[in-house]
Design a protein that fits this description.
With 400 residues, this protein is of the alpha/beta class. The protein is 45% helix and 11% strand.
Length: 400
């Protein structure tokens, strides 16, 4: 499998409400050292509140800024404006169509004009959908259909990727679920969508593991004692309803055994509500899905919080994101054989810093932590566009 080229990229989310014009945030990025950047739609280029005139003028300004600063706009990405809606899973067909036509397709056109890629996450399941396997399957089909439409629209123009998330109501949130999404979109027409692995989006999956027998027994004991089970993941509301039914009662051993079986059967009917152990492992994600992830959102995390922290000496002390291990996991991913029915592996990997700026942080503090992040990772990716094989030995190379 051909190794990809690797780039370090800075997302301009740090610049929101500080540096809002392309020449300004590109100028900051260039001063730090970046020659590739990602444009968050939140930074004054969201297609739902920007009219055609403004978007056209913004595009021309961005082209001029690229020439002035030497920064290339690698990708666009959705932000909180669209993250706050169920989006492509909306119960209203008109709302879904509006997002496809007025956001996704307009952003594809903008990205095409700037010769950039596009990433996004604009869909979520409501609780009503999560509690009904039939509705869950139907809504998933709706999402896939719309992603296919966007993939067809972007075909041969713009590389599109969807971001992986943390929990059952925001798909795809498991490795298997991500692979299923990519395969289902790609198979009918060969128009691909890819995925974005965010390095902090593995913090919640451990909370959503299927309860073991001991967990179910503990939940029953708590319910008998009248104690809360809210911090335990049983899956569907049906399982919790069974516990509510026996709250404050003392059961016989036979009744406990029967209740445990009912809870386990209820959970088994909702497999999409549960994650596996590997789904909480960043490096498992990179190894399994990395070859389908053209955009990777970098943030330092302790594995417990997803705070979009920078890579500073302080945060790196307890951080689990280590550049050498990231690159090694990527090499293992690209060393795997091609998979039938899946999109072709990507040719470029954009390792993109998605570092948030605190409202109370000064501009200099923001720039300092971004500079430290850049310098830390530049030790491992000395030049943009280097082949992954130049940065790390493949598993086979190490063996010899």
């Amino acid at each position: 499998m051909q190794p990809p080229r690797v780039f370090l990229v800075l997302d301009n989310c740090f610049a929101i409400k500080r540096w809002v014009r392309p020449r300004d945030w590109m100028g900051v990025g260039r001063e730090i050292g970046f020659t590739y950047m990602e444009a968050s739609a939140d930074n004054e280029i969201d297609a739902l509140y920007s009219d055609e005139r403004y978007m056209a003028e913004w595009a021309e300004e961005a082209k001029a800024a690229q020439s002035e600063t030497g920064v290339r706009l690698a990708n666009f990405y959705s932000g909180y404006q669209t993250y706050r809606t169920v989006g492509l899973a909306h119960h209203d067909a008109g709302m879904r169509k509006r997002l496809v036509d007025k956001w996704l397709k307009r952003m594809v056109d903008l990205a095409d004009d700037l010769e950039a890629g596009l990433g996004f996450h604009i869909f979520a399941y409501t609780d009503e959908v999560l509690q009904d396997p039939k509705k869950h399957a139907d809504v998933t089909d709706l999402i896939i259909d719309q992603l296919q439409e966007v993939a067809e629209y972007a075909r041969d123009r713009v590389q599109v990727s969807i971001e992986q998330m943390y929990s059952p109501h925001q798909p795809p949130w498991t490795i298997a679920g991500t692979i299923d999404f990519l395969e289902r979109v790609y198979r009918p027409s060969g128009a691909p969508v890819y995925t974005t692995i965010d390095f902090g989006h593995q913090i919640a999956q451990a909370r959503y593991r299927r309860p073991a027998q001991g967990d179910v027994a503990t939940a029953i004991a708590r319910a008998e004692a009248g104690k809360s089970t809210a911090d335990m993941w049983m899956g569907p509301e049906k399982a919790y309803a069974l516990l509510d039914r026996i709250a404050g009662q003392e059961l016989s051993d036979a009744d406990r055994h029967s209740l445990a079986r009912e809870i386990e059967e209820a959970a088994a009917a909702f497999p999409y509500l549960f994650a596996e152990e590997r789904d909480g492992d960043l490096y498992a994600w990179i190894e399994e899905v990395g070859r389908y992830s053209p955009i990777m959102h970098l943030q330092q995390t302790d594995g417990v919080h997803s705070g979009h922290r920078a890579f500073t000496p302080e945060t790196n002390k307890d951080g689990i994101v280590r550049p050498d291990e990231v690159l090694a996991a990527l090499a293992r991913s690209f060393a795997q054989p091609a998979e039938e029915g899946m999109p072709p592996p990507v040719e470029d990997i954009y390792l993109t810093f998605e570092v948030f700026a605190g409202t109370a942080e000064t501009n200099r503090q923001v720039i300092e932590k971004l500079t430290q992040s850049y310098e830390y990772w530049r030790e491992y990716v000395p030049e943009d566009g280097m082949l992954l094989s130049e940065l790390v030995a493949t598993p086979g190379d190490r063996a010899t």
